[in-house]
Amino acid sequence: MRFKRTFLGLLLGLSVGLAYAHEDPVLDWNEIAFRTLDELPPPIQMRFGAIVQLAVFEAVNSVDGTYESFVGIAHAPSGASAPAAAVGAAHRVLRSYFPDRAAEYDAEREKWLVRIPDGPGRQAGLAAGEAAAIAVMTSRENDGSEKNESYLPGSADPGQWQPTVGCPPTGGVFLHWREVKPFVIRRVKSFRSPPPPALGSPRYARAYAEVKEKGARDSTHRPADRTRVAKFYEVFGDAALWNPIARQLAVEARQTPAENAHTLALMNIALHDLTVALVETKYHYHLWRPETAIPAGGTDGNSRTEPDASYQPLIPTPCHPSYPSGHAATTGVAREVLERIFGDRDHRIVVTHPSMPGVKFEYATLEEVADDIDDARVYGGIHFPFDQSAGREQGRRVGAFVWRAAFEPAKRCSHDR
Fold this sequence. Notes:
By secondary structure, this protein is an all-alpha fold. Helix content is 50%, strand content 3%. The protein has helices spanning 25-37, 42-64, 82-97, 102-113, 120-139, 202-215, 224-235, 239-253, 257-285, 290-293, 326-342, 366-379, 385-405, and strands at 7-10, 349-351, 359-363. Helix 8 (239-253) runs antiparallel to helix 9. The termini are far apart.
């Protein structure tokens, strides 16, 4: 794996992402939403993130009219306020799903309403936002996410996933997510990753040796820089990482609120649909984790994989199969969408997290972010390198499909031109 020059030392009091002027309700309410969603497990985080951002897009688009409605809502009345529509949509979704935080959301709503001139336009915008939120939430009822299924392995054969330290007695988590209804993709299995390397192959042996050497808790081959990266990206990732990055890029590009609504809806829908395909792949192959594989290296039929009974990874292993990597896949899908909008060069992306005060990473390209995330999982000892490459490719494929298929330009009559 590559060394990165991203660790910049100690800074004080930073939260995720760059500070930016709160002039855009779309970006502001995305930040408000992820104060809540950052606390949730990744698949659930992805679902609510997609619902919030699709509702905001539908609300703003009902005023703007650039795209066909994804859920079939009507145009807002003439003169409706797009900022009010964005506020109304985000507020309604968040208040509906997280009623225990209603006072927080109500206070944020009031902060925004004093900035929008009172009158029929504001009221029409709020009503459009409410209508968009209800339509999107209704479209996601009975989507399969309400189930709670787990996975227990049918055998202890070499290569088969086994529960790792910290797993609940019920086994692998989020098995049911493979059957959750996507937003855009229809044939989830068509996005399944190809099989992982055979246990007896040289490629598997090379990957095994790399994570064994660099990912062990007591490794002497892991630079301090990579230890910091692994521990940093242990605490968060997925939608909670990529939404702040998207906000930074949107501010940098000086996008309009309507453009930001489109960008955030695309990325969060893609993250959601990728998660469905990812979980389907994980539980199709159910490949063991390094935490299981390395102590059992003498049983895999590969003479190159010397076992180490004392192996423990640097960071805790998530409770689901190894292949492909979830962090790599969500990085691939977000990167695919964002690069198509903003390009991959000459950015200033700052990533921090409140749980690790004083640590800041800075990047000039999205590829650099992806490289650090790949390193974090291998140097963290919880993924093989081929998990990372497969996840990245799966994410790219889903991102490209969602980009093409999600939103159609509005069909305008001749008298509208």
